[in-house]
Write a structure and sequence with these properties.
In the C-terminal section; belongs to the class-I pyridoxal-phosphate-dependent aminotransferase family. Pfam families: Aminotran_1_2, GntR. InterPro entries: Aminotransferase_I/II_large, HTH_trans_reg/aminotransferase, PyrdxlP-dep_Trfase, PyrdxlP-dep_Trfase_major, Tscrpt_reg_HTH_GntR, WH-like_DNA-bd_sf, WH_DNA-bd_sf. The protein has three domains: 63 residues, Winged helix-like DNA-binding domain superfamily/Winged helix DNA-binding domain (Arc Repressor Mutant, subunit A, Orthogonal Bundle); 113 residues, Aspartate Aminotransferase, domain 1 (Alpha-Beta Complex), CATH 3.90.1150; 215 residues, Type I PLP-dependent aspartate aminotransferase-like (Major domain) (Aspartate Aminotransferase, domain 2, 3-Layer(aba) Sandwich). It has 435 residues and is α/β, with parallel strands linked by helices.
Length: 435
């Protein structure tokens, strides 16, 4: 390895060339700043600037006392069905397609085209969304429309943060949120949850660690199903009130399907906040639409990334959404869907508790199971019984393949199938404990 150069740009280019040629491989350490500066005869600040540029580009990463190493490919997990499996898939995280209000699509009028320079938000959707979001956030806000909640989170972070800034995330966390933060080059600090939501001590620790943005799921947290209580939300608002510089992002992804009340953690008068509500769970994942209410300054930053000629959200999709939302059959369809998910989740949790299995949360599409033993061993034992489950390690900010949790998406199962699932899971945990 022969790193060359006399400027930060030349040194960074030399290291990237070595990585590209295979002379430096993922995980391999670079010389210390002092060592490389001495060998090249340059100022240490020059080498430090080269390393920072490489880190911003994702080519290297700093491991503190472990030095600077060449980055490897970022490992990500995604929601969705497993391809080409003969097992009963309980790991998808998907809504039930039979409960989505898709038949109303045939009645949506799409005849009037939208053109360059038209308003970014369809007026019908603006009217509907403004009223709905104002019920949750009765304070001045501006409305934005994004291509789903993940798109909203990514745009909020890019508009508000610099590479390497700290983001506070729930731990465990929604897979897509983890991926957005990792791929964006931000640092994460985990905030643990108990049965009332993220903890006050965890939030304080995240802010003390330098978090400039905190993402919070007020109800039906994915993967655990935990929802904030009114008391916990009030305590969290008190913490946030002491940190007006922090951008608070509430990801209320389950919204219209939730059986739990929405308790906001955003204090009155807080200058930087955003509430994101996806339509994926109740109108369908393929609609790729989310509504975002935020303070005016945050909205202005978002507009620079949602302008005509760049990446506006299709007005056709917006009209489809408002057509579905305004349809006289939709409210009843959403009520049926929410009730079904709640009933199936409650039934499975009760069956598991009867068998001495610990579960968490009480809302959402999924059931989070604390197995008390390596989740991989439980998963393998479940495969032998015909079930495909999602292990919990990928939902942790520090991925741990041996984490003792699994997540089940079982709302399509009938009563007999749920009982079989519960029996099989009890047996699988016992098998794993004997290994």
């Amino acid at each position: 390895m022969a790193i060359q150069g006399s400027t930060a740009h030349e040194i960074a280019d030399s290291i990237r060339a070595l990585i590209g040629s295979g002379a430096l491989v993922a995980g391999e350490g670079l010389p210390t700043v002092r060592g490389l500066a001495d060998s090249l005869g340059v100022n240490r600040n020059t080498v430090a600037a080269a390393y920072r540029a490489l880190a911003r580009a994702g080519a290297v990463e700093s491991r503190g006392r472990g030095g600077t190493v060449v980055s490897g490919p970022v490992r990500t997990e995604e929601e969705g069905f497993a391809a080409e499996t003969v097992l009963r898939d309980l790991g998808s995280g998907n809504p039930d397609p039979d409960l989505l209000p898709l038949p109303v699509l045939a009645e949506v009028d799409l005849r009037t085209p939208a053109l360059y320079g038209d308003a970014l938000i369809d007026e019908g959707l603006r009217t509907w969304a403004t009223g709905w979001l104002a019920e949750a956030q009765p304070r001045p806000f501006e409305l934005s429309v994004t291509s789903g909640a993940v798109d909203a989170l990514e745009r909020l972070l890019v508009a508000s943060l610099a590479h390497g800034d700290v983001v506070g995330l729930e731990d465990p966390c929604f897979l897509s949120s983890i991926n957005v933060v990792r791929l964006g080059g931000y640092r994460t600090v985990g905030i643990p949850l108990d049965e009332e939501g993220i903890t006050v001590a965890g939030l304080r620790a995240a802010i003390d660690a330098g978090a400039r943005t905190v993402v919070c799921t007020p109800r039906a947290h994915n993967p655990t199903g935990i929802s904030l209580t009114a008391e916990r939300a009030e305590a969290l608002r008190e913490v946030f009130a002491e940190a007006p510089h922090v951008l608070i992002i509430e990801d209320d992804h389950y919204s219209l399907l939730s059986r739990r009340p929405y308790h906001s953690v955003i204090p009155d008068g807080h200058p930087r906040w955003a509430l994101v509500r996806s339509m994926s769970k109740f109108l369908g994942p393929d609609l790729r639409l989310a509504l975002l209410a935020s303070d005016p300054d945050t909205a202005a930053q978002l507009r620079t990334r949602l302008s005509p000629g760049k990446t506006w959200v299709s007005r056709i999709l917006q009209r489809v959404a408002v057509g579905m939302l305004d349809h006289p059959d939709t409210a009843a369809a959403l009520e049926r869907a929410g009730a079904h998910y709640a009933e199936r989740g409650d039934a499975l949790r009760a069956l598991l508790r009867e068998r001495g299995i610990t579960v968490r949360g009480d809302d959402g599409l999924n059931v989070w199971v604390e197995c008390g033993v390596d989740g991989r061993a439980v998963s393998e034992a479940m495969m032998r019984r015909g079930w495909l489950v999602r292990t919990g390690g990928g939902f942790l900010l520090e991925a741990d393949e041996a984490s003792p949790q699994i997540r089940l998406t079982a709302h399509t199962l009938d009563d007999a199938e749920l009982r079989t699932l519960a029996d099989d899971l009890r047996a699988a945990i016992s098998d794993a404990l004997r290994r």
